[in-house]
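Record 1 of the preview.
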Amino acid sequence: MAKVINNTDFINLPLFIKGKVRNVYDLGDKLLIIVTDRISAFDVVFPNLIPDKGRVLNSISEFWFDYTKDIVGNHVITTDVSKYPGELSKFKEELQGRSMLVKKIEMAPAECIVRGYLSGSGWKSYQKEGSICGIKLPQGLRESEKLPEPIFTPTTKAHEGHDENITFEELADKIGSDLATKLRDASIALFNKASQHAESRGLILADTKFEFGIMNGELVIADEMCTPDSSRFWAMDKYEVGKPQDSFDKQFVRDYLESIKWDKKPPAPELPEDVIMNTRNKYMEAYERITGKKLD
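->
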């Protein structure tokens, strides 16, 4: 296992943003994204680190950015630390495999979610209203069932608290119909290509979240792409409609938290070693399944 990373205070650059998992640094017209080994659940960051998680997430995004570049460009400059500017290259041990140097772009103010299967909050919305984000669905669908076609269900991009589901029409009113249409069409095209590849690797891509920005007047995908943190991946050989599915993500963490009846409010409890290692192994399996490679 590689060295685990939580704090990145060794980077002597202005902090652009600190997320639950990513620390992003400002290099003027560029950004340095570092994916730590932190883990969050129910919007709370835990004290424990998951070994190799950051490297898995970064490497999966790198794979997908390259795999789908024929559909839409991306913001990546390089993931080779030896090509990073200034003194950053001396931190190769800490940064290689878990970071990327990217172009700073104007981000679209929306989370672009595509759903191919009925699960999670989409399943709850369907049970209650028969629709998701204003999209009416056929009656009689069961939990985890494949939808007739993938649907685009955007949300607002909240700086604090939870994102809110909105309809496509509300998104168009907010950002303009031209950009909203481009986001929807690119999201569906990316989802379809990623789904086909996932199925060739024995995985179902149930749903995923994309983030886009504008670079030189063109739409590009940014942040992360089709990782276990931003997507639901299910094993095809274990898929069974009508019930929840096991995911290639922090399922072990969520199951443990439910078992101890945690109130889902800070501070987060310590995670047992078996939950940490089972979660780590699930992330590693996701990487190997998606890319067909072993993590160096």
